[in-house]
Write a structure and sequence with these properties.
The protein has about 600 residues and is an alpha/beta fold. Strand 12, helix 15 and strand 13 form a beta-alpha-beta unit. Helix 2 packs parallel to helix 12, helix 6 runs parallel beside helix 10 and helix 14 packs parallel to helix 15.
C-alpha cells in the first residue's frame, strides 16, 4: 500500500510539473518574422553592446508590441584593450554618427526614442568613466562639444510635440576605471573604489551646487583627506610606479567632474519649456552604503528631477544602470496604454531584506524594492493578485534549506492557484546552485511572469520588475498576440537559462580552465591571446549538458496567456544556438533562443 501511495504521489508531482503533459513542438528557425504593429517603432541608442542592452531589450520591446530601430553595432560597440577596434581606430562608440542616426530617425517620422546619454556623450558606459573635458573626436579629424551636440539634438526632437523621448543617464560608480580598458588592472579598480568609498562631507539644500560637490571629492566629514585613508590600504607599489595611486587620481577627478557637469546640463535643458514629453531616468552605478563620493552627486541630481503639473513624476533616479533600458521600455508601454497602477504582494524569504543585498548597493533591499514599485505604479498589498517572491541572503545560514523550501513552496502554491508571480533571487550566490536545482525539479519555471538574479541586487530588482510589471499589464490589457507571447518567453528563458546554467555552473568551469590551465585572463581573451574557438566549444558543450533539465522543465510548463478570463497556453520546444562571448570575456554570453509553436 505504501508503494502505491508513493507511486501515486510521484505521478501527481509529474503531472503538476509537466503542465498536463503537453506535446513538445519542434523549435522554429530564429529569428522569426517580425510582427510588431506598423508605427510602433522605438529608436534606441543603447548603452553598449552587451546582451542586457541589446537582445534582451529587443525581446522585451517585442513582447510589448514594439520593434526597435537600432544603429549599426560599430557605432555603439565597446572594445577592450588589444581587441579589434571600431573603424580600426577607436575602442568606444562614435557619438557624432549616433547624433546623425537619431536625426535620420526623426526625419523618417519616428516618435518614440530611448537614448543613452553615456553613449551620446562618450561612446558608452565604459568610455564615460574615462573621458575628460567636453570635446569629443569627430570622424576624419577635429572635435565638437558633447554638451552642445546634445543640446541641439534635444531641441530638434522637442520641435515635434508627438515625440516621446526617454533619456537614460547614470551616476558614475565609485571606481572610474574598467579592468582591461585603457591599461587598467584589477589593482587600479580596487584602489580607486576604496578611494571613492571614503566618507565625504555631506552637503544639503542651497550648498548642493556642482562646484561645492567637486570640492567634497577632497574633503571628508571632518576635513580629513580621503586620499590618505585610501592610500593606506595600498601599501604595495611596483618598482616602475605602475600601481602608484597618484597616477590615477587626476583622471579620476576629471572624469567625475565631466560626468556630473554633463548630467547637470541635461537637467537644465529639460527644465526649460517644450520638454514636457521628455523623461529622464538616472541609474546609480556600483555604490556603497557609506557616505561615499556618490552621496553628494546623487543629492545634487535628485534636486533637479522634474514633476509635471498634475503631480506626476517626469524624472527618476533609481539604483541600477544595466537595467535602465528595461525600465524605460516597460514604463513607455505602461504610459501609452493608460496604466493606472496595480497592487502587488511582496514576500521575502531569508530574513535580510532590511539591509543591502550586496556590497555594491547603497540602500536596503526593501528601499530598492519600494522605489522600483513606485516607478511602475505598483502598491504593496496583502492578498494582491500579483505576487513578488524575493529570496534574500540567509539571516541564519543554518536555515538555508528552510528558506529555500519556503520559496519553492510559494512558487508552487501560486502556480497551482493560477496567479501571476515574479521571482527575484537576491541571495547573491549564498545558496549556491542548490536553489536552482530544486526549482528545476520541483517548480514550473515557465509559469513565472519574470525572473532575475545573479547580479548586484539593484539591477536584479529593476530587471525582474520591468519584465514582470510589463507582462502583467499586457495580460490585464488583454492585448497580447502570439508574437508577443513568444518574445516574452524569450525574455524569461534567457534570464533563467543564463543564471541557472551559465552563471551558476558553466562560467565557473570556464574561469578555472582559463586561469589554471591556460594561464589566461577570463576578462579578456585577447590579452594574452587565447583560442576563442576552443573556448566557444567548451561553452557549447557545458551549456548543452547544464541546460538540458531546465529546458525540459520549460517545455513541460504552461504559462498565463490571459487574466480575464483566466487562460493558459503551453510552451513549445526550446533550443539554443549561436553562442557567443560579446566582449570576448567570460563574464557574460549571448545566445539565440528558438521556440516551437505554443499549444
Amino acid at each position: 500500500m505504501k508503494q502505491v501511495k508513493r507511486l501515486w504521489t510521484a505521478l501527481l508531482a509529474l503531472i503538476l510539473l509537466t503542465g498536463c503533459g503537453a506535446r513538445r513542438t519542434e523549435p522554429l528557425p530564429y529569428p522569426e518574422p517580425a510582427a510588431a504593429e506598423p508605427g510602433k517603432a522605438i529608436a534606441y541608442a543603447p548603452l553598449d553592446d552587451r546582451p542586457d542592452n541589446v537582445e534582451r531589450v529587443v525581446y522585451l520591446a517585442e513582447s510589448l508590441g514594439y520593434s526597435l530601430a537600432m544603429p549599426e553595432k560599430v557605432l555603439y560597440r565597446t572594445a577592450l584593450d588589444h581587441q579589434p577596434k571600431n573603424f580600426d581606430s577607436i575602442q568606444r562608440g562614435e557619438p557624432w554618427s549616433l547624433f546623425t542616426w537619431v536625426l535620420e530617425q526623426e526625419a523618417a517620422g519616428c516618435d518614440r526614442y530611448i537614448l543613452s546619454l553615456d553613449q551620446l556623450h562618450s561612446g558608452g558606459l565604459v568610455a564615460s568613466r574615462s573621458l575628460t573635458g567636453d570635446d569629443i573626436e569627430l570622424p576624419g579629424g577635429g572635435t565638437a562639444s558633447a554638451s552642445h551636440l546634445l543640446e541641439n539634438l534635444l531641441a530638434k526632437l522637442a520641435e515635434d510635440e508627438n515625440n516621446v523621448v526617454w533619456l537614460l543617464d547614470s551616476v558614475m560608480r565609485l571606481a572610474n576605471v574598467t579592468v582591461g580598458y585603457e591599461g587598467a588592472r584589477l589593482e587600479h579598480y580596487n584602489w580607486l573604489r576604496s578611494f571613492g568609498a571614503q566618507p565625504r562631507e555631506t552637503l544639503a539644500e542651497e550648498d548642493l551646487t556642482i562646484e561645492n560637490v567637486l570640492e567634497t571629492y577632497w574633503r571628508g566629514p571632518n576635513g580629513e583627506d580621503p586620499y590618505d585613508g585610501a592610500a593606506r590600504q595600498m601599501d604595495a607599489v611596483s618598482a616602475d610606479g605602475y600601481y602608484q595611486p597618484s597616477r590615477f587620481i587626476e583622471p579620476f577627478i576629471e572624469s567625475r567632474e565631466r560626468k556630473l557637469r554633463l548630467s547637470g546640463e541635461v537637467q537644465n535643458i529639460l527644465a526649460g519649456p517644450g520638454y514636457e514629453n521628455f523623461r529622464l531616468l538616472i541609474g546609480i552605478d556600483d555604490s556603497s552604503l557609506e557616505d561615499c563620493i556618490q552621496k553628494n552627486e546623487i543629492a545634487f541630481l535628485r534636486q533637479g528631477l522634474r514633476t509635471g503639473e498634475n503631480g506626476k513624476r517626469l524624472d527618476w533616479l533609481l539604483s541600477g544602470v544595466d537595467d535602465l533600458a528595461f525600465k524605460a521600455v516597460a514604463r513607455l508601454y505602461l504610459d501609452e496604454t493608460g496604466w493606472t497602477g496595480g497592487r502587488a504582494c511582496v514576500q521575502y524569504f531569508g530574513g535580510t531584506e532590511d539591509r543591502p543585498a550586496c556590497e555594491y548597493d547603497f540602500q536596503p533591499l526593501t528601499e530598492i524594492m519600494a522605489e522600483h514599485l513606485a516607478f511602475f505604479d505598483l502598491r504593496e498589498a496583502d492578498g494582491a493578485e500579483l505576487q513578488i517572491l524575493v529570496l534574500t541572503q540567509p539571516e541564519d545560514p543554518s536555515q538555508m534549506d528552510a528558506y529555500r523550501n519556503q520559496l519553492i513552496g510559494a512558487v508552487r502554491e501560486y502556480k497551482n492557484a493560477r496567479r501571476p508571480a515574479i521571482l527575484i533571487d537576491a541571495g547573491n550566490g549564498t545558496y549556491g546552485t542548490e536553489v536552482y536545482e530544486a526549482l528545476t525539479k520541483k517548480a514550473e519555471l515557465g509559469y513565472l511572469l519574470a525572473y532575475s538574479g545573479m547580479l548586484d541586487m539593484a539591477i536584479v530588482t529593476g530587471t525582474a520588475l520591468s519584465h514582470g510589471a510589463a507582462r502583467y499589464a499586457v495580460l490585464r490589457n488583454g492585448e497580447n498576440t502570439d508574437y508577443m507571447d513568444r518574445a516574452w518567453a524569450r525574455t524569461l528563458a534567457d534570464s533563467i537559462l543564463k543564471d541557472f546554467c551559465y552563471k551558476g555552473v558553466v562560467r565557473n568551469e570556464l574561469l578555472a580552465y582559463i586561469r589554471n590551465d591556460l594561464g589566461g585572463d577570463p576578462n579578456n581573451f585577447w590579452f594574452p591571446a587565447l583560442d576563442r574557438g576552443e573556448l566557444l566549444s567548451r561553452l557549447e558543450a557545458g551549456m548543452e549538458k547544464e541546460t538540458a533539465p531546465v529546458i525540459r522543465n520549460l517545455e513541460r510548463s504552461a504559462f498565463l496567456s490571459s487574466l480575464e478570463p483566466r487562460g493558459e497556453r503551453h510552451w513549445g520546444g526550446v533550443a539554443l544556438e549561436n553562442y557567443r562571448f560579446p566582449w570576448d570575456r567570460a563574464f557574460e554570453i549571448g545566445m539565440d533562443i528558438r521556440l516551437g509553436d505554443f499549444q
